[in-house]
Amino acid sequence: MEYPRTPAKEPSTQRETDTPNNNASRLTFDTLQRLETEVSMKEQKIEDLTRLLTETEAALKLATHQLESERNTVQHLRSELNKKEKLTDCLSKELICKKDHCDQLAEENRGILVESQRLQQLQKDLTSEVRHKSQVAVQLTHQVESPSTQYMDLCFNLGFPPPSEILQSLHTDSAIRCGGHLVTFKELSALCEVLGLGSVVNTKHWVEFHTLDLRLDGDECYVLLEELIRCMPTLKTLILHEITDNGIKSVMSALRATSWVHTIEFSKCKLTDTGLNLLFTTIQHRNALVKAQQGTASKTGKTSMSLSISSLDLSRCKVAKEATLRMIALETLTVLSLVGTGGILTDAIAQSIMQSCPNLHELDVSDAIKLTNGFISDVNTFGPRLRNLNLTGCKGITRISLKNVTTLISAFDRVTHLESESLENLPTALESLCFVTLHTPKLLALTLKNLSLTPREWDLLEIPTQNVKTLNFMSCKLTKVGDLLRRCRTIESLSLSMSRGLVDADVVMWCPRIRNLDLTNSYYISDNAIQALVQCCQRLEKVSLQRCSNITDVGLRHIAQPTSHLIELNVLECPKITVLGIDFLVSNVSSMRCVIHETYQNRNINVLSENNLSASTLDSASSLSPPKRPASLSASTFSPLSTKLSMSSPIRTPISF
């Protein structure tokens, strides 16, 4: 913007003529020029500012235009973004729908899979059921045709019930066994018919059986048995109980006519010399026939089987002739009982029997009063495989020196010398100290009864204890028994039942291997003995302290060690032992399984209390050999693995070792 300029006035002529006024005028003029100059400068600045303002306005217009353009762009982008958001929302909704659809399809697929598995399981069940029903049908078919079903039907048709033993063996076994039932003539006749002898009830099942084990009632049954043996080519083993002479005739006749039976056994036979002669003659005839056929077997292809018998018991036979005993020549015989032949059995006959029976393993010659010490020499010479020997009642034998026998049964009432390098077991208790020599270094078990023993007598007796594992003193009178027991370092089972003389001082340094210990009726031992016992015998498992009247709860606390292996404890008739002491023992000994006491009850272990022990049982509850003990009592009832007993269950036997 331009402003009008004021025109310059021409100097007046008066200035030149008037000097003071001229000076003043000159100053004013200079001021005016200066002002004009300043005004010109400011005008110039204004022009610059105006030009700058114009440029700024132009730039502002341009920026406004650009801003407007950018705003439009932003609005456009926002509109595009809104469109895309809407599109995204649509896609999200569509995706959710598709996801829901996929979940629905997955659920349907899962349901289809479950249904498929159910159908497969149903198919398997149906297949299994069909297979089971097929098997049942086959079993029913076989049962209808089986010998047991036919035998049962035939017995009922004939008017008598079939023996259960025969039915069970016909149904489940390849052997017909009826040794515990007395088979009558009708029952055997029905069996013969079922096996295809006299009827068409069944003609094929008899070939399945290879063993007959029967106890027949009457001699007429053996006639049927003879026919049965002749018609059973698969029969290999024949076992007969309580057979008589008439029965042996029929059986031996069948065995002579056939060749398939190769093993016979007679239990509790009631034969005489005639029956035994027939038996031995048939066996010899059959075996001779086999030897004669061995040379022609390769040409004909047919051979007879030898006839063998492994055990023979003559205890119920009536043998009156020595020649009958001399006929005992059976190579396969392993067990022979000659009880009842003591009146005719001599050293020579026994030697002949042992020579003819080289495989003899067990021999019983009880009550053979004619046998002498020479028989023992013959046993060593002609019985190399003999291991068990019974000499009970052989009064003529006073010196016994055996090489191979491991178990010897004898009363030893007249025996003065007993020597054996192989003897391990003496089942009979020694009741006398008549031995001059006793040398049995391998002896494992020894029982002494009704003896009075001191260390001196023990030394004189020279009882071998280096290998003994079981040592029993039954009703013995013992003096300084501790000195005796300290020498026995291999004992695992020790019984001092009913013996007298044991005191606290004797229970020192006993064998640490002892597991089973019976101190019944040891009246004089106290808690101090129990403490010493626990210290030296840390493997104890079964202990009987019955009638040890001086044992208290303190003794039980000595037993209740953390390392104790105690399983069974008998504390019957110990008046100073209380329930609290037993409870402390049971709580601290984790291995405890059985406690015998009048009043204690604990449901976590086997307990024999006054409620479930009868008076007779309480009187007979000693561990090893209790007096007046019923023969039916069994030690297995108190096994540590036995089932836990309830308080109401009856207890039939005490702790036993």
Overall average pLDDT: 80
Count helical runs.
18
> Which CATH C-level class of one domain is it?
Alpha Beta
CATH architecture of one domain: Alpha-Beta Horseshoe
Number-wise, the strands total: 22
Radius of gyration: 58 Å
Structural class label: alpha/beta
User: The CATH topology of one domain is what?
Assistant: Leucine-rich repeat, LRR (right-handed beta-alpha superhelix)
The major pleated sheet works out as: 8 strands, parallel
Uncertain segments: 12-17, 198-207, 298-302, 609-657
- The amount of beta strand, in percent, is 5-15%
What overall form do the CA principal axes indicate?
Answer: elongated
CATH superfamily of one domain: Ribonuclease Inhibitor
- Ends apart, CA distance between termini: 141 Å
* Helicity level: 40-55%
Oligomer: single chain
**Strand sequence of the main sheet, in spatial order?**
13-15-17-18-19-20-21-22
